[in-house]
């Protein structure tokens, strides 16, 4: 009786471990407990300001945040 074997190759993928501090401008705040791969941050603005852009961003494997450039603008302007 023939014996069959399956050979499985695993690729070792290297991930940057840290996206570093999330860039936010004046009147903005970031909530997170980490800046490592797959960590999510929540971006909010001071009272009286609206958030322009995504309210969340995720640390990607390349060491960059998935969404940056958020700003906070004064309500009514």
Automatic annotation (TrEMBL):
Location of the Sushi domain:
17-74
Q: Does the keyword Disulfide bond apply?
A: yes
Give start-end of the signal peptide: none
List cystine links: 45-72
Q: Which InterPro entries match?
A: Sushi/SCR/CCP_sf (IPR035976), Sushi_SCR_CCP_dom (IPR000436)
Q: Which SUPFAM superfamilies match?
A: Complement control module/SCR domain (SSF57535)
**Does the keyword Disulfide bond feature in the UniProt annotation?**
yes
Q: Per UniProt, which keywords does this protein have?
A: Disulfide bond, Sushi
Q: Which domain of life is it from?
A: Eukaryota
Q: Which Gene3D superfamilies match?
A: Complement Module, domain 1
For this entry, the protein name equals: Sushi domain-containing protein
Q: Which organism is it from?
A: Dreissena polymorpha
